Amino acid sequence: MATLSRPIVDSHWQESATAELRAGLGSVRMWAMLAHFDVVSRYRRTAIGPFWQTLTLAIFVGSLGFVYSALFNMEVSTYVPFLTASLLPWLFISTIINEGCTVFVEGEPIIKNTRVPLSMFAFRVTLRNFIVLLHNLPVLVLVLLILGSPVGWPVLLAPLGLVLILINAPWVVLVLGLLTTRFRDIQQLVAILLQVTFLVTPIMWSPALLGGGRAFIAELNPLHHFLEVFRAPVLGAVPAALSYGVVLITTLVGWTGALALFRRYRSRVAYWL
User: 82: burial class by Cβ within 10 Å (0-12, 13-18, 19+)?
Assistant: First the structure.
């Protein structure tokens, strides 16, 4: 880790928020190394390493899938693929939100001792959770194969859905990282809101259960649309244009707001730590 004592990029990255963002992207070797180290250290001295996450997801889907399919009066072959395709992106999104709150606090030793672009830490969190997502992906493949779920050409749109989710992850981390570094109570508030959001977002239950007159309740939830751009193709359907529209608008507004916030307050992070 001796390289941490040297500047990662030229000092010009401090000129603007967009320049710092480019510098963060340019230091890909550094944040990729840190992300890999995070995953390895988290499961050090375990027999199957990060595949514990895979096993946990498999047990969760296998146990709750049969129970909730009965509660919702849905076929197991329909409900379990829906549940798995919902949980996969949700686990990524919720972990990104949780870890985004502590991203700069976690990186305090580096931030206070080395001049690096702060955006590098957002990419680090995004990559390490994407690695975990890839470890969970076999669970979804096995569910589809075992239950004989039909897979049509819309599945080709699933990678696009993942890309759209990934593009949004860094700005979420930057915003939550800045706010929580200044106001530490936000981490507790976010944890509570995530628990509520899990219940009101169509993850454990299908939007079809709301009925035609109340389906708009799910459509008002932006997270539903982020899940849908990945979930619908996996289940053999083309995501609604509304879902793509909400995701794209959220991406534009989110990055615009994040850059404005980052431009104004990034220089204060080291003093808030």
Answer: buried
Q: What is the pTM of this model?
A: 0.88
Find out whether 123 and 31 touch, Cβ atoms under 8 Å.
yes
Low pLDDT (below 70) residues in the chain: 1-15, 212-213
Task: For residue 115, count CB atoms less than 10 angstroms from its CB and return exposed for 0-12, middle for 13-18, buried for 19 or more.
Answer: middle
CB contact at 8 A, 135 and 54: yes
DSSP strands (E only) in 108-148: none
The helix or strand, by DSSP H or E, that contains position 232, with its residue range, turns out to be helix 222-234
Structure tokens at 174: 């930057």
Cα(67)–Cα(50) distance, integer angstroms: 27
Q: How distant is the alpha carbon of residue 43 from its chain centre?
A: 20
